[in-house]
Amino acid sequence: MGSFLENDNCFIIAELSANHGGDIEIAKETVRAAKRAGADAIKLQTYTADTITLKVDNPDFKISQGTHWDGQYLYDLYKEASLPWEWHKELFDLAKEEGLACFSSPFDTAAVDFLEELGNPIYKVASFEITDIPLIEYIASKGKPVIISTGIADVTDIELAIEACKRVGNNQITILKCTSAYPALDEDANLLTIPDIAKKFDVSSGLSDHTLGIEGPVVAVVLGAKVIEKHFILNKEIGGPDAHFSLDEKEFSEMVDAVRKAEKMMGKVDYEMTEKKKQSREFSRSLYISDTVKEGDIISKENVRSVRPGFGMHPKHYNDVLGKTLNKDLEKGTPLNWDHINK
To answer: Strand 286-289 vs strand 304-307: parallel, antiparallel, or unpaired?
Structure first.
């Protein structure tokens, strides 16, 4: 697979995340559905509860921020959400058969090593890992494109993450605007950050979207997003930690269609006078005799008007010809030209 950074169209990622219901057959069918829905890639997350947090009852580890997951301990949430490592190869192989890129977000160095054995082609750094500079440096050292979400980041965090990649010679960096709320409110999306990221940090930019609709990705691509990531679920009845803000196959397909249509409509900067434009100009305005006139009559607002179609003189000459005399009789509906006017 060539680098997604080389593509003209934005790279659309279906995030499997926790939407596997603990069943590999659901995970496999989700991969197939992502392909049907028009995704370019399916993304996994590679961690265990033990690699991402600690199994303790300390209040620090209990979620209480007004989220969908409040009341749960981090360990229990991640144990439910994690994708078994023994599934990875089967899902990577299936994605390859489907013609779909498959890659993952690692959450520790052991996960990176494991993914390297599978030929993982791209690495994603999740929003909450953007501060783990040693992990980012290790990921980037593998020489693959690195996509980094910024849901909890300030400018310094983004700078440090980019510096970590560059320190090991990796300049294949994409930074995603992300709002770390699940779901995110439309008014918190701040999508104008996408082109600013590209300009400020001299990187490719995109969107990791947690809003409930499909409008965010469409706006993002118009603003220059090169990558779109959206959580994807086979069927919301599966439930699970991420189901409430994920798109199903029909919704994801509608999003892809809307994004691709937006890309097509953006096209290019174009002032070219095509044959179609030239033909349409026949319906533009021009100067016409609006009341039958005789030789010697003076051109006035009563006998010459700017009207459709466009076979007469350009309307820019209207004030120039007012007050001049005509050198022949002309019927109403005659296109005016300079040959009709006394010099």
So the answer is: antiparallel
Tell which of 233, 266, 299 closes a domain. Answer: 266
Q: Which two tokens stand for residue 275?
A: 């044959």
**Which of 203, 232, 266 is a domain's end point?**
266
The C-alpha R_g of the chain, in whole angstroms, comes to 30
**174 found inside a domain:** yes
Average pLDDT over the chain, rounded to an integer: 93
**Does the residue 61 lie in any domain?**
no
Phi-psi region of 163 (alpha: psi -120 to 50; beta: other; left: phi over 0): alpha
- Torsion of the alpha carbons at 23, 26, 32 and 35, rounded to the nearest 10: -100
Which pLDDT score, from 0 to 100, does residue 67 have? 64
Domain containing 100 equals 7-47+82-266
Question: Which residues of the chain, if any, have pLDDT below 70?
Answer: 1-5, 65-69
The per-residue pLDDT for range 301-338, each reduced to its tens digit, is: 999 999 999 999 999 999 999 999 999 999 999 999 99
Is 210 in the same domain as 150?
Answer: yes
